[in-house]
Design brief:
This protein has helices spanning 9-22, 42-48, 52-55, 66-70, 73-84, 126-183, and strands spanning 26-31, 86-94, 100-110, 117-124. The chain is α+β, with helices and mostly antiparallel strands. The protein folds into two domains: 9-124, PAS domain (Beta-Lactamase); 126-184. The chain is rod-shaped. The termini are far apart. The relative contact order is 0.10.
């Protein structure tokens, strides 16, 4: 099948919009220079729970945890994107229903647009994060069990070594007693 040339800008824009709105596993949206949400896709609704009507013109900080907002994480992220071209982040965000969602994403500074704005793409990685945390918990538990076994082994081996030393000392003393008895 031959590739179709997309020459007309309107057609290209329509295809791009169709593509962005068809993506369900990634939230893809634009932010103005101040961090307010300009566009929204179905993936944003799926990942963070808001419809476009509910979230449009709201500030990006609505998704961030109270701890991250207290540390001005949004402002730092936008500043990094503006200075370096992009800012990657992996963090907990707050879903509309209040639960935390672990996301991996990137914010890109789109300086060649009028007006300049940011593009943001995030993906829900909550299940992967939970698996990582479970593996870490199991790994820590395993290491603790190994330390317990090592302590037990040290105690057991130490006791056995003391028993061997006591047996040798008892044999030595028994031999001395025999020698003393034989001299009498």
């Amino acid at each position: 099948m031959a590739a179709v040339a997309i020459e007309h800008p309107d057609h290209r824009d329509q295809l791009y919009d169709l593509f962005v709105h068809s993506v369900k596993d990634f939230a893809i949206f634009l932010l103005d220079d101040g961090g307010r949400i300009l566009t929204w896709n179905e993936g944003g609704h799926r990942v963070l729970g808001y419809t476009e009507a509910e979230i449009k013109d709201r500030h990006l900080s609505i998704f961030y945890t109270p701890e991250d907002n207290a540390e001005s994480v949004v402002e730092k992220e936008l500043k990094t994107a503006k200075e370096t071209g992009c800012a990657s982040d992996d963090r907990w965000l707050i879903h509309k229903d209040g639960r935390r969602v672990w996301v991996s994403g990137v914010t890109v500074w789109l300086h060649n647009t009028e007006p300049a704005c940011y593009g943001k793409i995030i993906r829900d990685q909550t299940e992967a994060r939970k698996k990582e945390e479970r593996i870490e918990t199991l790994n820590n538990s395993l290491h603790e069990k190994i330390r317990e076994l090592e302590r037990f082994e040290d105690a057991t081996v130490g006791r056995e070594l003391r028993m061997i030393e006591l047996k040798r000392e008892m044999e030595r003393l028994t031999e001395k007693v025999r020698m003393l008895e034989s001299k009498q």
